[in-house]
Structure formats: structure tokens, C-alpha cells
Amino acid sequence: MPKLENALISLNSLSRPAAGKVSAPALLVVTLVYLVAVLSVPLYAPQRIVWLAVYPVVQSEMSGIGFARVFGKSLWVLPLILLIGIFNPFIDTQTAFTIGGVAVSRGWVSFFSIMLRGLLAVQAVVILTMTAGFYDMCHAMRRFGCPKVLVTQLQFTYRYMVVVVEEAVGMDRARKARGFGRNSYPLRMWGRMVGQLLVRSYERATRIYRAMLSRGFDGTMPLSRPQHMSGLSWVFMLIWVAVMLALRLINISQLIF
């Protein structure tokens, strides 16, 4: 299957919650607590961050997503994370510890800590989006007091991404149908296709927006189904919050070793 079709399928799958009985508000609370726990760990204590990896590993498998898939998606932001901490080893050269006669500086420890917490934070957000569904997640954000403008912009951005990819799929099929197997085109033609893609997607987005206004759009997206906190959602939230607080406040590495 071509890459554009795969991208469209991936985008559409994000709008639908994964099979499960945990509500989006419970997943959002757990994710927020997890992000605070991960980002509040001291920079020079990466051994404490490692224990917090239990949430993305366990929750991804419990949700039926698979940790390998979540880990693969988190690698997309790895270059940005590396760029944030790449200069630490050259700035902080003070020795932190020695392994086999090799001195490891505090800069390398902080660099590893930044990389680890960045990946874990992205994995938690990926699990939230794939498990709760993008629209349900946005409605949960609205329930917790997130500004209506921000939530609406997130929903429109996601919808516009789908529109652009759908137009790109149609243009790619038309190009293949008229290209007689030709794969290489001059750069000038690709520039024209990108311009046409932007024009077509903008015009379609305008038609969609006018259709929404004619149906009574008032600045908020309607909720397809009510979000109720079931008993299972409360148990899920309380257990994970307790586990995260314990992993954050107790130095398990020091107790074991």
C-alpha cells in the first residue's frame, strides 16, 4: 500500500478510541500525573526515571497497542530530543562516577536523562491519543478547563491534516493514472503539484467550514457519545496515580542496590 494511503489510515485511526472501557478523562489524568512525575525527577538521577518506564510498557500492552508500535512512533522526536541535550557533555565535564576506570561526566548523565525522559513523555502522549481517541481526548481537555479556543484549534488542525492527505491521495492517483508508469518528474512539476495541493485543500476546508456553519457550529465540536467515569475508569486512575507517586517519591534503586 502506498505511503500516502498508510498515512491516511493512521490519521483516521487516531480519531477512534481503542477497544477498551477506560474513559478519556481517566486516561488524561493519568497521563498528566505521569508527565509531572517524569519531568520532576532530578536531572542527574536517570536511574529513577527508568522505573517510570513501567507505565508505557504495561499500558501499551494492556490496551492492545503494543509497546513496539508506541516506541517506534516516539522515535520520530528523537532528533529534537538529542538536539536539546547534545551540548551537555561538552559543557558539564565534571566527573559523576567511574566505570572500569572510565570517568563518566555529569554532562553525559544529564544527556541520557534528557533523552530518556523525552522518549517516555512522548510515549505517554502517544498512548493517550491512540487509546482515548483524538476527539475524546480534546473533549476531556475541555472538561478539565482547557481554553475552548485551544481545543477547537487542535481539532481543526487534526481535521485539516486529514483533508490535506486525502487531497494528496487523490492527486497521486491521478498522476499515476496519467503517467503511464513514469516515476520521475522535473522539479518544476513537483512545485506545481504542491501549490495545487494547498489550493485544493484550502478550498475543500472552506466548503467544510461553511457546511459546519449551516448546521449550527458555535465554536465547539459536538461530542459523539457522553463521557462517563465508570467504576473501572476510577480504579484504573487511582491505581496508576498511586503507582506513579510511589515510583516518584521512593528511590527504588537505592532500596534494592
The share of residues in extended strands comes to: under 5%
Largest sheet: 2 strands, antiparallel
Q: Helix segment count?
A: 13
Give the tally of β-strands.
2
What this model shows, in words?
With 257 residues, this protein is mostly helical. The protein is 72% helix and 4% strand. The protein has helices spanning 3-14, 24-39, 46-51, 54-62, 67-74, 78-85, 88-91, 106-132, 134-143, 148-179, 187-214, 231-249, 252-256, and strands at 95-99, 102-105. The chain has a two-stranded antiparallel ribbon with strand order 1-2. A hairpin with a 2-residue loop joins strand 1 and strand 2 (102-105). Helix 2 runs parallel beside helix 12 and helix 8 (106-132) packs across helix 9. It is globular, with a radius of gyration of 23 Å. The N and C termini lie far apart (50 Å). The mean pLDDT is 83.
